[in-house]
Amino acid sequence: MELRLVGGYPSLFTRDGNDNVCLGVISKTDKLWLNSMGVLMNNAVSSSVSAVAATGVKIHFVDPSPTFSGHEECTSTPYLNGLDPINLAYSFHPNSDGQTLGYTSRFQAAVTSYVS
């Protein structure tokens, strides 16, 4: 049976939303709200993956939070692209470090864990 992995969403901002002047156009309240929406999306995706897994499909949710923690937007080593007003679709997506150090490491660990 094929293994299917479904990735979740990392928090965009630090847990407390405090980042001094970084991205001053987004308030602390909005940063916290955006993070909470990520939690809701992850809960919905994880629940859906669990429901599918209950039917016998070999599928697992991969939470990227552990590897993105400390690398949110406005940290010294963010794993996300910043706000790009010219190309909003590019904003807040994983940068190359986010892809390799954030997601890839979590997916590799999941493959190792679930294939064994």
Describe the protein in words:
This protein has about 120 residues and is mainly alpha-helical. The protein has a single domain (about 5-115), classed as SGNH hydrolase (Rossmann fold). Helices cover about 45% and strands about 5% of the residues. A two-stranded parallel sheet has the order 1-2. The model has no long low-confidence stretch (mean pLDDT about 90).
Task: Write a compact overview of the structure shown.
The chain is mainly alpha-helical. It has one domain: Rossmann fold. Helix content is about 45%, strand content about 5%.
DSSP summary: helix tally: 3
The share of residues in extended strands comes to: 5-15%
Q: CATH superfamily membership, which one?
A: SGNH hydrolase
Mean pLDDT metric: 90
Globular, elongated, flat, extended or rod-shaped: what is the shape?
Answer: elongated
Q: Report strand order across the widest sheet.
A: 1-2
What is the CATH architecture term? Answer: 3-Layer(aba) Sandwich
**Run of helices and strands:** EHEHH
Number of domains: 1
What oligomeric state best describes the polypeptide chains here? single chain
Can you identify the CATH class? Alpha Beta
CATH topology category name: Rossmann fold
- Uncertain runs are none
Main beta-sheet strand count, sense and barrel state: 2 strands, parallel
